[in-house]
Amino acid sequence: MVRLENRRAAGRELATRLERYAGRDDTVVLALPRGGVPVAFEVARALDTPLDVLLVRKLGVPGREELAMGAIAAGGVTVLSEDLIRELGITQREVSAAILRGQEELDRREHSYRAGPPLPVRGKTVLLVDDGLATGSTMHAAAIALRRLGAARIVIAVPVGAREHCDVLRDCAEEVVCAHAPAPFVGVGEWYDDFAQIEDDEVRALLSAARVRVHG
After folding, report:
1. What is the pLDDT along the chain (216 residues), one digit of tens a residue?
2. What is the dihedral of CA 154, 48, 179, 157, to 10 degrees?
3. Is 89 a domain residue?
4. How far apart are CA 78 and CA 194, in angstroms?
5. Which domain holds residue 13?
6. pLDDT of res. 1
7. How many domains is the chain partitioned into structurally?
8. Helices of type H across the chain
9. What is the pLDDT of residue 68?
10. Beta 175-180 vs 153-160: how paired, if at all?
């Protein structure tokens, strides 16, 4: 059975599968916060590539917040799992309320994490990194946002993920790199020995360290 020690160890392993992108001027690494940031930090460091975050927020099912019914991303992108919403009888009012709460959190994180303008992605190859992929809704929203921002090539990269959802995401990215796709897949945290909550302070510290590495 696959076991990942922690997010940073997972990032170092993931980087070995992305070595062809090392040192390229046309490539940036974007993390999905918060869990994706330690993974992406190690990827960016190994590949000598700039690091930033792409702000995306999962929309949790009311009363079952760990289950995603969709996601929103910077730039007004909303992706909804219409089949799940119908199956669970979630009302439009509940969906709208979740979107509003999610946008408030995106705005808070934008203010909290940014020390300057975001890295430009137009015409770039973007390595889009998270700590794992369960439903794929947040990653899907992130990929749509990157298309709107003019990314030339999107590479979705995760240490562990559900195979069927990784396959679906091939429709919205040029490449999907998933280091491990165990089956059956229960949840991302099941495959980590240490899957502790990532706090805002750690996100800011890692982004700051990445900026120092690139700019000196």
Report:
1. 678 999 999 999 999 999 999 999 999 999 999 999 999 999 999 999 999 999 988 898 999 887 789 888 877 888 888 988 999 999 999 999 999 999 998 888 888 887 778 899 999 999 999 999 988 888 988 999 999 889 999 999 999 999 998 999 999 999 999 999 998 888 899 999 999 999 999 999 999 999 887 765
2. -20
3. no
4. 31
5. 7-55+120-215
6. 60
7. 1
8. 7-16, 36-47, 82-88, 92-113, 137-148, 163-169, 200-215
9. 83
10. parallel
Q: Is the peptide bond before 33 cis (omega within 30 degrees of 0)?
A: no
In a domain, 32, yes or no: yes
Structure tokens at 33: 């916060």
What distance, in Å, lies between the first and last C-alpha atoms of the chain? 41
* 166 within domain boundaries: yes
Are 33 and 55 contacting, i.e. CB atoms less than 8 angstroms apart? yes
Residue 71 lies in a domain: no
Contact of 160 with 2, CB cutoff 8 Å: yes
**Cα→Cα distances 81→54, 138, 173, Å:** 21, 11, 19
Supply the pTM of this predicted model: 0.88
Measure the CA–CA gap between 175 and 75, rounded to whole angstroms: 23
Beta strand residue intervals within 119-193, DSSP E: 125-129, 153-160, 175-180
CA dihedral (189, 194, 200, 204) positive or negative: negative
What CATH number is given to the structural domain containing 177?
3.40.50.2020
